[in-house]
Amino acid sequence: MLDSAVIEVRAGNGGHGLVAFIREALLPRGGPGGGDGGHGGDVVLIADPEINTLTKFHWQPHFIAKNGGKGDGHHRNGPKGNTVEVTVPVGTEVWVWEDGEDKELIGDLSTPGQRMIVAEGGRGGWGNAHFVSATHQEPLLAEAGEDGEIRRVRLNLKLLADVGLVGMPNAGKSSILTAISAARPKVADYPFTTLEPVLGVVEYGPRAFVAVDIPGLIEGAHSGIGLGDEFLKHVQRTRVLVHVVDGSEDDVPGRIKAINDEIVKFDPEMAKKPQILAINKLDLDEVSVLIDEIKESLKTVDGLHSETFFVSAATYDGLEELKTAMFHLLQSSYEANPVVIPESVEEIPVLRPVVRKSTDVVVVEPEGQLRIVHQKAVRLARGSNLGLHEARLQFHRRLDQLKVTKALRDAGMEDGDTVLIGDWEFDWD
Q1: How many Cβ atoms sit within 10 Å of the Cβ of residue 82?
Q2: Most buried by CB count within 10 Å: which residue of 35, 293, 354, 357?
Q3: Topology alike, domains 4-157 and 163-336
Q4: pTM of the complete model
Q5: pLDDT at position 267, please?
Q6: CA 141, chain centre distance (Å)
Q7: Partners of 109 in the beta sheet?
């Protein structure tokens, strides 16, 4: 199972607005008619309950939405770019990925049908029809479309299960899951047989719940030792923990304490989850004859709040009682913390990550020149033909309205200085 993947998402750029005029015999005062550019397409993640791995992103790590179309004459707007919809498993976290590490959690798709706009398409640029005023009846300005967002994100899958089976390697978690569900994890007599989490549906009368077998943990797992924290994250979403211990091993209390310590170090909130203690391998003489001794030793475990069951995955002894305890503890958890399920997908809010855009207006280049970086001004420069004298005059007036001229003066600009904006360079006068 691939439960982590880095992908790149590119939203579509907005289409450019158009400078155009309506010149028709029957419309002598047609005026400017340049349409707006279409918005660029978004890249949207959708939580799909029928997908349970991130394997496909190993083969397709790039997702690119379409650009918006350019505006047309007669006030016709350009077409919107098509949105790219990407399905991910329910339980997928979305992290901003920079310099080889997670920077920020921007989304958690934990509800079937939930949508997240992971990269938003750029807005379409205004055509010249938007710039008509009482003093400018023939505007020569139009905006370029806004660039769509480009992000590298890491998808991190946390399995959604009700009950998590945790414990040291070879404690018998996989055997117990096999015995109580239809899951068929690999079972062998060597440590770390299970290399990835395995889900199983456990039937209890007419009801059912989902259990997950978490690969064996060892001391230091919270910091990545052994299979490490790669799989501890899957326990975070479970409501009930079943701590499986091999009763035939030495120092049962020490083994319980070692795993609980790792859980606390990884996430203290996980230690507060309801927990059941399952002492496995009751079919072995060294366990069955020492039940009273093991029970007495458990009294030395500080903070142990678990109900204890002696079971055998090999002979099924005690498993029905264990399954009953799982179900009732799970029911109590849901009653204490009910899940609010939306009646329809439309009721699920669409996640929109906060975009931190620059508020700079003017910056100083290394050579000392002033560059205008005000986004609206830059788009106006890119979308207009500033080679025309009248267009430049109108552009200067817009810079006054946008308070860019004031920012240039505050930055020390004087008449005759060179000013840069986009691909344009001109002497200020």
Answers
A1: 15
A2: 35
A3: no
A4: 0.70
A5: 80
A6: 39
A7: 92
- In order of 367, 380, 382, 414, the CA distances from 408 in angstroms are 16, 17, 19, 9
Q: Which two tokens stand for residue 278?
A: 């399952």
The dihedral of CA 253, 258, 263, 264: what is its sign?
Answer: positive
Sorted by where each begins, the domain ranges of the chain are 4-157, 163-336, 362-427
So what CATH class is 163-336? Answer: alpha beta
How far is it, in rounded angstroms, from Cα 208 to Cα 211?
A: 10
For the ranges 121-135, 224-238, 293-307, 315-329, the lowest mean pLDDT is seen at 224-238
How far apart, in whole angstroms, are the C-alpha atoms of residue 36 and residue 141?
12
CB 12 within 8 A of CB 41: yes
Contact 254, 300 (CB under 8 A): no
How many angstroms separate the CA atoms of 221 and 248, rounded?
Answer: 23
Q: Return phi, psi of residue 271, to 5°.
A: -65, -15
Report d(CA 235, CA 270) in Å as an integer.
8
Q: Are 378 and 395 within 8 A, CB to CB?
A: no
For the domain made up of 4-157, give the CATH fold: Spo0b-associated Gtp-binding Protein; Chain: A, (2.70.210)
Confidence of residue 368 (pLDDT cuts 50, 70, 90): confident
Cα–Cα separations (whole angstroms), residue 98 to 43, 88, 120, 151, 152: 19, 21, 19, 9, 7
**How many other C-beta atoms can be found within 10 angstroms of the C-beta atom of residue 230?**
15
Give residue 234's pLDDT: 66
State the DSSP H helix or E strand holding residue 11, giving kind and residue range, or none if neither: none
Q: Rounded to whole angstroms, how far apart are CA atoms 379 and 17?
A: 10
Architecture category of domain 362-427 in CATH: 2-Layer Sandwich (3.30)
Is the sign of the CA dihedral 206, 212, 216, 222 positive or negative? negative
**Which residue spans within 233-288 are E strands per DSSP?**
240-246, 275-280
Contacts 24+ apart (CB under 8 A), 305-310: 305/275, 306/243, 306/275, 306/276, 306/277, 307/276, 307/277, 308/276, 308/277, 308/278, 308/279, 309/276, 309/277, 309/278, 309/279, 310/247, 310/279, 310/282
CB 227 within 8 A of CB 192: yes
pLDDT tens-place string over residues 141-175: 999 999 999 999 999 887 677 898 888 887 888 88
